[in-house]
Amino acid sequence: MKYLFIFLKKQSFFFLFIFLELVAIILLINHNSFQGSRIINSTNAITGSFQDAFTSIGDYFFLKEANEQLNAENARLHELLQKSTVFPYSAISQPDTTYAFIPARVISNTTRGRNNFIMINRGRLDGIEKEMGLISPQGIAGIIVEISSHYATAMSLLHKDTKISARLKNNGQMVNVSWDGLSPRTGIVEDIPTHIIPKPGDTVVTSGYSFVFPGDLMIGVIGNKVFTGGNLNRAEIEFSTDFNSLHFVNVTKNNASTELDSLNMQLKDE
Amino acid sequence: MNNIIVRNTVRFIVLVLIQVFVLNNISVNGYINPYLYVLFILLLPFETPGWLLLTSSFVLGFTIDIFAHTPGMHTAASVFMAFCRPGLIRFISGSKGLEPGMAPGIKDMGFRWFFLYSLILILLHHLLFFFLEIFRFNEFAQTLYRALLSTFSTFLLVLLVEYLFIRRKDKA
Q: Does the CA dihedral B142-B148-B152-B155 come out positive or negative?
């Protein structure tokens, strides 16, 4: 009887282990990075306020850096503004209102995992929705995947599921950008047709075809490694965004997304 | 008894806070991620019943997961580590025998014992965690490299904390 009891006790340890491990695996599998699990979404509100408090202390240490970044962006925008007012009354200068920008502050950010996330202090009540883009002063940074009322989490470009529709600026060739997990500074440009061999320093920008990011936003420049051979060429890309120093970002809101989505649905139905 | 519960609860909270607000924010280089929070599982008393060992590890992993946006990964790795713990203790303690009142640490069990005990458990935890994170095998060598580097850094931190703790106890 005693041995039976001991045996059962040992087995219960094993069964409890299996049960808890199954729960963890189910959590893992259910969490599709584009939809986000309900559990993580609801906990966003709690962790968000913690991270927010912590970041507001840390903010003071990065004021100089953040200022410099914003200053540089200001200068770039001023330059653009001047260019666009050359024909002030022509149809060309009609402001493009497809995209709206919502400014936000980064309250948590990782760069070391294989899958990284950026948390911001804007949420549903500020008009943030899933699959909106996140851009830093230097270039694109991520895509929103989870939202709560006051906070949102974006999947960083540094994620294994990243696939950004992009374009080589000098010849307009469509490519895709992904991340191989090696360094937070570099990623991979994929699906380059074999007749095109990108040169180091070539600029890579967003294509604007994904409805997440507006077109012609900076992603990065081609790095030193270019892989030829095989069906399609690949190349290393140096991200223009410095993911280790993200402080202020903008969320891109596509005002026409519902219209575009319904158009896409019609295409699928046919 | 109450004292042990209080001490472990405090340790739980402190380790989670350190992990979430300090270690998760420090980047040494792209590869080094110390997960010091596993120290909680390492230092649970020998007398901890199995169900409590597993469930507290589950809660610990889950808390870390929520903050790190890694659903289930830390949870699965922590529960696995907790599952391996009793067997490993039996295996490496051998004939030494555990006396009541002993705690798993350098002070009671000696450096060699704690070295093996913590290194093996941390390695098991990190291997499972890093392979769950990538969830595929085509980056095998790279993932293994990450897991080993992080194991090493976690292990060093664990030893450091353990030594700080011993000194403080001796003075008191």
A: positive
- C-beta separation of A186 from A236 below 8 A: yes
Average pLDDT, chain B: 84
Structure tokens at B43: 């230092």
Of B73, B71, B104, nearest in space to B90 by CA: B104
Domain ranges of chain A: 2-31, 32-61+96-254
Say if the Cβ atoms of B67 and A47 lie within 8 Å: yes
As a whole number of angstroms, the distance between CA B41 and CA A40 comes to: 24
Task: Provide the CATH topology of domain A32-61+96-254.
Answer: Thrombin, subunit H (2.40.10)
Alpha-carbon dihedral of residues B51, B54, B135, A209, nearest 10 degrees?
100
Euclidean distance between CA atoms B98 and B110, whole angstroms = 13
Q: Which residues, 6+ apart, have CB-to-CB distance to B16 below 8 Å?
A: B37, B60, B63, B64, B67
Q: What is the ipTM of this complex?
A: 0.82
Say whether B22 sits in a helix, a strand or coil. Answer: helix
- Residue B94 Ramachandran class (φ > 0 left, ψ -120 to 50 alpha, else beta): left
Domain definitions of chain B by residue range: 2-164
In the structure encoding, which two tokens stand for residue B34, read together?
Answer: 């110390």
Tens digits of residue pLDDT in A25-36: 888 777 654 444
Question: Distance between CA B122 and CA B36 in Å, rounded?
Answer: 9
Range A68-93 average pLDDT:
65
Both tokens assigned to B76 = 């699965």
Give the up-direction half-sphere exposure of residue A220: CA atoms within 13 A in the CB hemisphere.
28
Please tell me the pTM assigned to this model: 0.68
| DSSP 8-state class, residue B64 | H
Chain A residue nearest residue B82, CA to CA: A17
Provide the H-helix boundaries in chain A. Answer: 2-30, 38-58, 63-84, 257-269
Which residues of A have a CB under 8 Å from any CB of B?
9, 12-14, 16-17, 20-21, 23-31, 37, 39-40, 43, 46-47, 50-51, 54, 110-115, 117, 119, 146, 153, 160, 181-184, 244
